[in-house]
Amino acid sequence: MAAPIGDMFSLCADPAKTSHSVEVRFIDNTKGKGLFTKRAFKKGDTIFIERPLVSAQFLWNALYKYRACEYCLSALETAEENARRLSGLPALSLLHPELCKVRPDRHQACPQCQVMYCSTECRQAAWEQYHKALCLGPSHNEPEHPINKLQVAWRTMHYPPETSSIMLMAKMVATVKQAQDKKHWQRLFSNFCSRTANEEEEIVHKLLGEKFQGQLALLHNLFTTAFHDDRLSQWFTPEGFRSLFSLVGTNGQGIGTSSLSQWVHACDALELSSQQREQLDAFIDQLYKDIDKETGDFLNCEGSGLFLLQSSCNHSCVPNAEASFPDNNFLLHLNALSDISPGEEICISYLDCCQRDRSRHSRHKILRENYLFICSCQKCMSQADDADMTSEDEEEVDGEGETEGDDLEDEMTDV
């Protein structure tokens, strides 16, 4: 773990902790709130580091043996173990294995249900915040346990590539259940946008339309059976569950951790002779070719989390900041992509790099269905006169594209 344990647990998701550099302001009734700088930042500067209120590994990711700390999502495999599994080469030996920062001797299992943590500190933090309410104890392998049934149902509806987890909702409920000051946690979670529709623009979240009512009803019933609490009754009504579902789908920030990636970055920083550098680079290049052949694009332990400050950032198709997870855990680093002046709004992109390169119409379609708004950033305004057709349509005009599929599996993988 790159960040010291003490630092990780002191990085609370409390805007007051970073009030010297950023502040949340109300903008207007359309955009709501936004995050603004209180001082200048240069390109590449870290604006803030934030710990999530809750986070959870994706269920398929965990099922496919991407081993991560149940609390902080730190990768538990050593870089060499990770490289061997991803490449399918069990005898592979990494150069400079001492650069791996994973410490298996510090790993701890929950004594009741055996879920794994990267440290005693993480195990204790999870137990004190939510795990007491979620621990399956000796029932962790029983298919009929309500939590196991819920997880199976979620996996059958939400295939890779994953973008959210029902367990993020479970941890929200469990956190409030265990908290001495329940109203404090409820206030924190109430900061996240949880609307299921944008009435002004007549937009409904893509997974809350009539098409998916059967799937939502099943999840609602299983979720209620597993976690119902009279003190949180507002989250267990059909509409309350829809709002909770929308909150997680709209605000969940993807988290990726990798011991192998950390090892590669550490190798890049080594001072070597030109011959040694050439040999090491060739070794890493071949390793990634082997991994691509065996595993494809799924390299990381993956999950999502709810971050108070980060969730206050509005979207732009030309962002001036981006989030990353360089510490191989759930600590989010928000870094400046360009110089930012005092008082300027900090904007991130809700789209990945490939999506940002698509047509204005395609970008708007993704943002409407997943985030319930129509973007009016500088790039979108400059393309306002472009033809209203999707990027697939544009490619098809050129004879290269395929029309977008609309089956259940495609929809359910894109919360």
UniProtKB/TrEMBL annotation:
InterPro entries (alphabetical): SET_dom (IPR001214), SET_dom_sf (IPR046341), SMYD5_SET (IPR044422), TPR-like_helical_dom_sf (IPR011990), Znf_MYND (IPR002893)
Keywords, alphabetical: Cytoplasm, Metal-binding, Methyltransferase, S-adenosyl-L-methionine, Transferase, Zinc, Zinc-finger
Entry-linked CDD domains: SET_SMYD5 (cd10521)
Gene3D superfamilies named in the record: SET domain (2.170.270.10), Tetratricopeptide repeat domain (1.25.40.10)
GO cellular component: cytoplasm
Coiled coil: none
Domain of life where this protein originates: Eukaryota
Chief localisation class: cytoplasm
Region feature Disordered, mapped onto this chain: 386-415
Cellular compartment(s): Cytoplasm
Annotated ranges, domain SET: 20-351
EC number(s) from the headed UniProt entry: 2.1.1.359, 2.1.1.372
One Pfam short name: zf-MYND
Catalytic activity: L-lysyl-[protein] + 3 S-adenosyl-L-methionine = N(6),N(6),N(6)-trimethyl-L-lysyl-[protein] + 3 S-adenosyl-L-homocysteine + 3 H(+); L-lysyl(20)-[histone H4] + 3 S-adenosyl-L-methionine = N(6),N(6),N(6)-trimethyl-L-lysyl(20)-[histone H4] + 3 S-adenosyl-L-homocysteine + 3 H(+); L-lysyl(36)-[histone H3] + 3 S-adenosyl-L-methionine = N(6),N(6),N(6)-trimethyl-L-lysyl(36)-[histone H3] + 3 S-adenosyl-L-homocysteine + 3 H(+)
GO MF annotation list: histone H3K36 trimethyltransferase activity; histone H4K20 trimethyltransferase activity; zinc ion binding
Record-level GO BP terms: methylation; negative regulation of gene expression, epigenetic; regulation of cell differentiation
The keyword Secreted is assigned to this record: no
PANTHER family: HISTONE-LYSINE N-TRIMETHYLTRANSFERASE SMYD5 (PTHR46402:SF2), SET AND MYND DOMAIN-CONTAINING PROTEIN 5 (PTHR46402)
Name this protein carries in UniProt: Protein-lysine N-trimethyltransferase SMYD5
